[in-house]
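Figure caption, in words: inputs first, then the predicted bound structure.
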Amino acid sequence: MTFRWFGNNDDTVTLDQIRQIPGMTGVVGALFDIPVGEVWPIDRIMKLKDEVNAEGLELEVIESVNIHEDIKLGLPSRERYIENYKQTLINLSKAGVKVVCYNFMPIFDWTRSDLAKKLPDGSNALSYDDDIVQKIQPNKLADEMEKNARDFSLPGWEPEKLERLQVLFDQYKDMDGEKLFENLEYFLKEIIPIAEEYDIKMAIHPDDPPWSIFGLPRIVTNKENLDRIINLVDSSYNGLTLCSGCLGADPKNDIPDMIRYFGSKGRIHFAHVRNIKIHEGRNFDESSHLSSDGSLDLFEIMKAYYDIDFKGYIRPDHGRMIWGETGRPGYGLYDRALGVTYINGLWEAINKMGKRC
Ligand code: DNO
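Bound structure (D-mannose present):
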């Protein structure tokens, strides 16, 4: 069981608090200040590892080593960024990292229309309203996300990228899903041999939300495409971060079925477990983890992980802000800690009651 942590200078949650969450064994971290595309220096990685280890926690999962846009665009300059990526993987392996989560979303990472929507119980949560997102100018949405991020820089929404939005949109003008698949294949064919050699499992994160926004293609969206991705390079090192909340935003995605399917192939290396409440159309709020609060059945999800005898890393995903907590949107302490306890409770009950099917 792991918990995402943004580092001493950029998180309201401390390692000390994290290790007091029952059942917690590790932190999911990253070097957030290294510009996308540059090599992560070994001494910085070791420093982070030492900090985490000093609190009795492991640092075996990195989320994310982000992919430079030139790789997604398939530009000739991708070669340099791919070489840097390989070196980063080698450096991470020297620090004992086992899984690297990454995504392949053009320009934008996860997208929400409201970072603090007030829910009926007085808590607030991340929320997505497709009518707003599809109508707003991308730079306006980016400005609003930045403004509402409470002075935290949101991963995937790096200011240097947002400054170049127009240029990036022009570069993506002729990009479609097929070309993006080709560029992902090129990247994986370069990276996976290194991942194998250095024993680092690559775990692609689904697109959030799992459909096209602002006319940009998105391909990590459903079972068929995930299957295609793991077959681009047929290696167990080419695997998935199975994020229930991202994929679950599309009701056509049957999450327990996907867990069984990809899990039985040994391709799920990292499980993100969270719930969402889907409203009309493509609108949803991030609810608490509890099944009855959202649209996903967390019992069925954990049962599927049990059935595949899941041995990978898991973390609660985003949480609401509750009990007056303020902090990084989606990443407060309390609701995520409740999520951990609930996930662990489900697991214990399933384990003690259960027979695998
Ligand atoms: C948002 C996260 C994403 C995720 C990346 C993985 O909170 O789920 O930013 O870390 O997409 O590369």
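The mean pLDDT is 95.
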